[in-house]
Each structure stands twice: as structure tokens, then as C-alpha cells.
Design goal:
By secondary structure, the protein is mainly alpha-helical. It is built from seven helices and no strands.
């Protein structure tokens, strides 16, 4: 299936997870581990339309360098190291936050919680401006 850039659906999201697996050469179990979820939960994202929580997304952004904007919308490059500030404003804000926190001496858990909080705020904005693109109102959302 080929999903248009900028579209969101559970099927498009699952297709992008499969692309990550293929592009990075990682197994579903490895990607799940980096998201702090079970491989069964990861499989649910691929096959049942379940969607990850902001904390899972934050873990993938921080630990695997996945571009959250690409994962959610298909826009921009797949990996953060491929993105520039002009291409991906979400990635840019995540990178700035991580850099500032590291500069202030924050530890990994503090950084992950801060990225999670930022992503939750971004998702709340999305809910307000485009309810049809909402992740938080999806019927089978993971609360991992």
C-alpha cells in the first residue's frame, strides 16, 4: 500500500513502522525494546490498528532517532539525522529540547519525560485543530 505524505490512519502508521524496520534492519522485537514495549504490543501496532502512547513515541525519537513528524504524518525524512530545521519543525523542537536538557545535565529519564510532555502537547494541538487526525481519540490506543 502506498499512503500519501501528510495522511494519518492506523494503516499508514503501520506501514511507516514496517518501513522503519526495513530501513534500519532492526527486528520488531528490537524496535519494541527501544520503545519500552513488548513485541506483542509492537505487533498490535502493525496488525490491529492500535496506536502507541506519547511515551513510546518519545522513546523511539530519543533512542532510535526516528523523526516523529514522519512517523505520524509521513512528511519529512524518516530519521532525525536526515532532517533539517526547514524540513521538519517537530524534529527541530525535539532536537532543541534534548540539546538544552543535555546541556543542563539532565539524565536520560528526565529527557525522555520532557520529550514525552512535548509530544503530548503537540498531539493535543493536533486534536484541537484537526480532530480527524487525532491520535488521542483513536478507539484502540495503547497507554504504555
Amino acid at each position: 500500500m502506498n499512503f500519501a505524505s501528510g495522511s494519518f490512519s492506523p494503516d499508514a502508521f503501520a506501514a511507516r513502522l514496517r518501513e522503519i524496520r526495513k530501513a534500519t534492519g532492526r527486528t520488531g522485537a528490537e524496535i519494541a525494546q527501544h520503545g519500552c514495549i513488548t513485541k506483542q504490543t509492537f505487533s498490535g501496532y502493525l496488525h490491529t490498528g492500535r496506536l502507541p502512547s506519547a511515551s513510546v513515541l518519545a522513546n523511539w525519537v530519543y533512542r532510535l532517532g526516528i523523526n516523529a513528524n514522519w512517523l505520524l504524518t509521513g512528511e519529512g525524512p524518516m530519521l532525525m539525522d536526515q532532517a533539517s530545521e526547514e524540513q521538519d519543525p517537530v524534529m527541530s523542537r525535539v532536537a532543541e529540547l534534548v540539546q538544552a536538557l543535555r546541556g543542563a545535565g539532565a539524565v536520560e529519564d528526565e529527557i525522555l519525560h520532557s520529550v514525552q510532555d512535548m509530544l503530548e502537547r503537540e498531539l493535543a494541538k493536533l486534536d484541537q485543530t484537526s480532530p480527524e487526525l487525532s491520535l488521542t481519540t483513536a478507539p484502540q490506543q495503547d497507554k504504555a
